[in-house]
Design goal:
CATH class of the largest domain in chain B: Alpha Beta
Strand order of the largest sheet of chain B: 10-9-8-7-11-12-15
Strand order of the largest sheet of chain A: 1-11-10-9-8-2-3
Largest sheet of chain A: 7 strands, mixed
Largest interface: A-B, 58 and 43 residues
Number of helices of chain B: 9
Structural class of chain A: alpha+beta
Order of helices and strands of chain A: EHEEEEHEEEHHEHEEHHHHHEEEEHHH
Number of strands of chain B: 15
Distance between the termini of chain A: 50 Å
Oligomer: heterodimer
Strand content of chain B: 25-35%
Number of strands of chain A: 15
CATH architecture of the largest domain in chain B: 3-Layer(aba) Sandwich
Helix content of chain B: 10-25%
Distance between the termini of chain B: 28 Å
Bound molecules: flavin-adenine dinucleotide, iron/sulfur cluster, FE2/S2 (inorganic) cluster
Helix content of chain A: 25-40%
CATH superfamily of the largest domain in chain B: Nucleotide-binding domain of ferredoxin-NADP reductase (FNR) module
Largest sheet of chain B: 7 strands, mixed
Strand content of chain A: 15-25%
C-alpha cells in the first residue's frame, strides 16, 4: 500500500497510458457524471457532489478537494463490455446466390477505467458469469473484458438511492480490481489487486501510507455504509417472489410504471439484447446486428400470434422476479448489487426497495 | 460451443406439405461441419434467410441421416414467408443444434403418448418420425391432437396418413367442429378418457398452448401417470439460441439452453401462470 497525493493523480494516468491503455474516467456531461475518454486528471469531476432520489438527479459543488465525493451516475461498466449496439456477423451473397458468413472482429482496445465503484465491480462479476458461460462464451464480451484495467474507488459519499451495503456489494471494493483508491482530503491510499496493478504501482514510486491514513479511510467507508437508508428485505428473495407471482401488488405497480425500460438500460447487470438483420444497400452484404433490448419492450416476449407478457403488470413482474429471484437459479445470487440507478433514473420514481418491502410484507399495496 | 455465426447451407429438397407448410431438406456445405453435426429429436436450429434474419425451427429428419437436415416450417410471418420462397439449390444459413431434445433413452421400450394442441406441433413431429422408423423398439404409440376450430388443423393430410397406419392410435379433437370434421368435438384432454393407458409404462410428450398442457397434466395425474413421466416442449421468443440474449426465459429457465424440452416437475410451478 502506498499514498498518492492528489496532485500526483496525473502521473497514475501517465503510467497507464505508458502501459498502452486508453483511460476512461468520470466527467461531467450534460449535468450528469458519465464515463468518457479521459485526457487528463483535470477533467475529473473534482468538487462535485450528487443529489439523488427517486426520479431525481442533480449535481452541486461541494468539497473542492475531492475527486470522488459522489456516487455513481447513470452509466455502469456495462456499455464498455457489452456494446449497446454492434455488428455480430456479416453475410455476403455472391451474384450466383452463394452465401458466406464472417464474424465481425470485436472493436476493442486496452482500456483503463478510473473510479469504478464496488457495486459495478460486483455487477461485472455477474456479467462475466452470464456472457462467459462455459456452454457458449460470447467472444465480443470476452475480448473487451480481457482489455479492461480497473481502478476502483472505495465509496465515501453514497447517494440516497444506494443500498449496496444491504446487498453485500459495497461500499468497499473487495475484489475484481487492478488498483483501488481510498480518497482522503489530500490524496489516496492506493493498493494493487492484480499483477497488472502491481506493475503500474511500482512505476509510481510512492511513499507508503500511514496507519492513521488507513484508519481514516476505513472509518469513511464504514460511515458510508451507515449512511445508506435503503435496503433489500433480504439477500435472497427467490422463494418469496416466486410464491407471490399472483400478488395484487404487481397490478398496483403497473398503474405507475410506464414500461419505458429506463431501469433496464441503467442497470449494470441487465443483459437482454435483440438480434436484427440489416441488409446493406450494396445488395451484397447483410449485417447481423445485436443491440440492447429490454424485457419491458413489446417485442421481447413475442411469439407468433401471442405476446407472452402483454401487460405492464407482467413485464414489471418479470423484471423484478428475474433480478431478485431467477438470478439465484441462473447465477447463484441476486442480480442486484444495490447501485440504486433504477430508482434514480425511473421517470416516475418507482423504487425497487420499496416494492420489495411491500411484497415482503405480504403484498398488499400501499 | 454451438455456433455464434451460421454455417453455410444449401436447400437440397423442398416439399410442399400443405398450402402453408413446407419442408426444407438442408445440407451443410462444409464437410467438417456436416460430420460434427449431431442432434437429438426435439432440438432446433436457427435457420437464416439472407437479408431477413433467423428463426428457431425444430429438426425433424432422422438423427442418423447424415445427408441433410429436414425442417418443416409453417408460413406465419416475415422470415418464414421468405424461407417458403427458397428453391432447391438456394443457399441459407444454419446455427445449431441448440437445446435439449426429447428423452429418447427413457422412452425406449415404453408406451408413448403424444398430446399436442393448437397449431404448433412441430417439436413432436421429429419424435413421431423417429419412433415410426424404429417401431419395434416401442410399445403403444398414441397421438392426441386438439385444435380450437376444425379448420385450424393445418396438416390434415399428415394426420389422415397416420390414422391409416395400424400401429398408431391417432385421435383428433376440435373445440368447434364444422361439417367435414369426422372426429371428436370437445377438448383434447377429454380424449384421454377413451384411451387405454398403462400408467406404469407410459411416457408422455406434449407441446402446444401452456394452458392446454397444464390441463392435460391434471387429467394424466388422475390416471396415475407420475409427473416425472411427462415431458413438454416449450415455446418462447428466441434470438440467439445459446443462452445469451435473454428472450427465451420462462421464469428462471433459458428455454433455448435448458429446454425446449422439459420434464414436467422442472417447470411445474410456472406452467399455469400467465405471462412468466
Ligand atoms: C424451439 C422452437 C422450435 C420451433 N420449431 C418450429 C418448426 O419446426 N416449424 C415451424 O414452423 N415453427 C417452429 N417454431 C416457431 C417459429 O420459430 C416461428 O413461427 C417463427 O419464428 C416466426 O417467424 P416469422 O419471422 O415468420 O414471423 P413473425 O411473426 O414476423 O416474427 C417476427 C420475429 O418474432 C420472433 N418469433 C415469432 N414467433 C416466434 C416463435 N413462435 N418462437 C420464437 N420466436 C418467434 C422471431 O424472432 C421472428 O423472427 C419453433 C419455435 C421454437 C421456439
Ligand atoms: S436492480 Fe437497480 S439497484 Fe439493483 S443493480 Fe440493477 S439498477 Fe442497480
Ligand atoms: S420501473 Fe420505472 S424505469 Fe423501469 S420501466 Fe417502469 S417506469 Fe420505466
Ligand atoms: S434464445 Fe437467446 S437466451 Fe435463449
Amino acid at each position: 500500500m502506498a499514498f498518492l497525493l492528489h496532485h500526483q493523480l496525473q502521473s497514475l494516468l501517465d503510467v497507464l497510458a505508458g502501459e498502452g491503455y486508453q483511460c476512461v474516467g468520470p466527467q461531467v456531461q450534460d449535468g450528469a457524471i458519465v464515463y468518457a475518454p479521459l485526457a487528463s486528471a483535470a477533467e475529473l469531476p473534482r468538487g462535485y457532489r450528487d443529489q439523488q432520489g427517486p426520479g431525481e438527479y442533480r449535481l452541486v459543488r461541494e468539497n473542492p478537494q475531492r475527486f470522488f465525493a459522489w456516487a455513481n451516475g447513470p452509466q455502469a461498466l456495462k456499455p464498455l463490455v457489452f456494446a449497446p449496439r454492434e455488428s455480430a456477423w456479416q453475410a455476403r451473397r455472391e451474384s450466383g446466390g452463394a452465401l458466406s458468413f464472417a464474424p465481425v472482429a470485436p472493436q476493442s482496445r486496452p482500456t483503463a477505467v478510473i473510479g469504478v465503484r464496488a457495486c459495478d465491480l460486483a455487477a461485472l462479476a455477474l456479467l462475466d458469469r452470464h456472457f462467459l458461460h462455459e456452454s457458449s462464451p460470447d467472444r465480443y464480451y470476452a475480448a473487451r473484458r480481457d482489455d479492461l484495467f480497473l481502478v476502483a474507488v472505495n465509496c465515501t459519499h453514497p447517494a440516497a438511492t444506494c443500498f449496496c451495503a444491504s446487498t453485500g456489494d459495497g461500499p468497499d471494493a473487495t475484489s475484481g480490481y487492478d488498483l483501488v483508491l481510498s480518497e482522503l482530503d489530500d490524496g489516496f491510499i492506493i493498493e494493487a489487486g492484480s499483477n497488472a496493478g502491481q506493475r503500474a504501482l511500482a512505476q509510481l514510486q510512492l511513499d507508503t501510507d500511514s496507519k492513521a491514513q488507513r484508519s481514516t479511510a476505513a472509518a469513511a467507508t464504514a460511515n458510508a455504509a451507515q449512511q445508506q437508508s435503503r435496503c433489500v428485505p433480504s439477500r435472497n428473495m427467490r422463494n418469496l417472489l416466486f410464491a407471490n407471482l399472483e400478488s395484487p401488488h404487481w397490478e398496483e405497480v403497473a398503474q405507475r410504471c410506464l414500461a419505458c425500460g429506463n431501469c433496464t438500460s441503467v442497470c449494470p447487470t441487465c443483459f437482454c439484447h435483440a438480434h436484427r438483420e440489416e441488409p446493406a444497400i450494396d445488395g451484397v452484404h447483410s449485417h447481423h446486428v445485436r443491440e440492447w433490448d429490454s424485457c419491458f419492450s413489446q417485442g421481447h416476449s413475442y411469439i407468433h400470434g401471442l405476446t407472452v407478457r402483454s401487460h405492464t403488470r407482467e413485464r414489471y413482474r418479470k423484471w423484478l422476479v428475474h433480478k431478485f429471484g431467477g438470478w439465484h437459479d441462473q447465477f447463484g445470487r441476486s442480480g442486484c448489487t444495490g447501485c440504486g440507478r433504477c430508482i434514480t433514473w425511473c421517470p416516475v420514481g418507482i423504487d425497487v426497495t420499496a416494492e420489495l418491502a411491500v411484497l415482503n410484507a405480504g403484498g398488499q399495496g400501499k | 460451443m454451438s455456433g455464434q455465426v451460421p454455417c453455410r447451407a444449401r436447400i437440397v429438397r423442398r416439399i410442399q406439405e400443405s398450402p402453408t407448410i413446407f419442408t426444407l431438406g438442408i445440407e451443410l456445405l462444409e464437410s467438417n461441419q456436416r460430420k460434427r453435426f449431431s442432434f437429438t429429436p426435439g432440438q432446433f436450429n436457427m435457420v437464416y434467410l439472407y437479408g431477413a434474419g433467423e428463426v428457431p425451427i425444430s429438426i425433424v429428419s432422422d438423427p442418423e441421416d447424415e445427408t441433410m437436415l429436414d425442417h418443416t416450417i409453417r408460413v406465419v410471418g416475415r422470415v418464414t414467408r421468405g424461407l417458403a420462397l427458397l428453391k432447391e439449390g438456394d443457399e441459407a444459413g444454419i446455427r445449431g443444434p441448440f437445446g435439449r431434445g426429447w428423452p429418447l433413452d427413457a422412452v425406449h421400450g415404453k408406451d408413448v403418448l403424444i398430446i399436442t394442441g393448437g397449431l404448433g406441433c412441430a417439436p413432436v413431429i421429429s419424435v413421431i418420425n423417429y419412433i415410426l422408423r424404429r417401431r419395434a423398439d416401442y410399445g403403444r404409440l398414441t397421438i392426441l391432437q386438439g385444435v380450437k376450430h376444425s379448420e385450424d388443423l393445418i396438416w390434415r393430410q399428415r394426420y389422415e396418413r397416420w390414422i391409416e397406419q395400424p400401429d398408431i392410435d391417432v385421435r383428433l379433437a376440435a373445440d368447434v367442429g364444422t361439417g367435414n370434421w369426422p372426429w371428436y368435438i370437445g377438448r383434447v384432454t377429454a380424449l384421454l378418457d377413451g384411451v387405454e393407458i398403462d400408467a406404469q409404462r407410459t411416457i408422455v410428450m406434449m407441446c402446444g398452448p401452456e394452458l392446454m398442457m397444464a390441463r392435460a397434466v391434471g387429467s394424466l395425474a388422475s390416471k396415475g401417470i407420475p409427473g416425472g413421466a411427462i415431458w413438454m416442449s416449450m415455446e418462447r421468443n428466441m434470438h440467439c439460441g445459446n443462452g445469451l440474449c435473454g428472450h427465451c426465459q420462462l421464469g428462471p429457465k433459458f428455454v433455448c439452453r435448458e429446454g425446449p424440452v422439459f420434464q414436467y416437475p422442472e417447470i411445474e410451478s410456472l406452467l399455469a401462470i400467465r405471462g412468466v
